[in-house]
Amino acid sequence: MASLWEYANPAKFSRTADVVVPWVSVLAGIALVGGLVWGFFFTPDDYRQGATVKIIYLHVPAALLAINAWLMMLVTSLVWLIRRHHVSALAAKAAAPVGMTMTLIALITGAIWGQPMWGTWWAWDPRLTSFLILFMFYLGYIALWEAIDDPDTAADLTSVLCLVGSVFALLSRYAVNFWNQGLHQGASLSLDKEKNVADVFYLPLLVCIAGFTLLFISLVLLRTRTEIRIRRCRALEARERMG
Amino acid sequence: MIDLGKYAEVVLSAYGASFVMLAVLVLASVRKSRKALKNLQKAEERRNG
Fold first, then answer.
1. Chain B: which residues have CB within 8 Å of chain A?
2. How large is the ipTM?
């Protein structure tokens, strides 16, 4: 079995991504279409929330990925800061727009769902607010990468920002446990069967979570390979200019 | 067609907004990847003469 550190080699990473991305993308498509069709067409309405419960198949996977994407960025940023592997810094950069989109989906579907259930699109509830702050951290992280010309300096500063933002990523996950207040209900997924959503919603939800996760993996691999190509291209152009 | 009752607009707008955002993300990622590959190939061709 190849060591994980072998993938710090950009060429090795790109070759592996070439093979893996098509397969993961197909699996993501199958899981997403399967899970969403199952959830949308073949599950009943909730006795209290009616048909709005079908939003759970988008809202919960997107919210999970929004937090986990940042945690993935945290790990790769730490690898960059400690071991100075460029691929890990580029992987963090590649994951940010994907995580930001997931956060936006969670915020928008949450607002659309909240309006008929709570009577408001938005409330300064702990979970909603920490998610909004997480979204702003994503925006700031992406802007910081774009604002700095030197890639190593950009990687250093964005890694530090990522460490700080991790507090809000974790807060987004556990806010409802810290503050027993606000409109947002507790976690939809729980090991406690009493608190977990009913099986009829749970199984298609798991398929949707698998689909979103596979899509995330596929996009991050694709975008990291893109960043490697851009970096290589810049290096070749710099050599050309130097003669 | 499935009957979503009085919440049809709410559910369909949530699905519509999510699909649009996912589609933009996927298309932008693929487009950027293709552009980067094209630029890299050109740069390597120039280097190899």
1. 2, 4-8, 10-11, 13-15, 17-18, 21-22, 24-26, 28-30, 32-33, 36-37, 39-40, 43-44, 46-47
2. 0.94
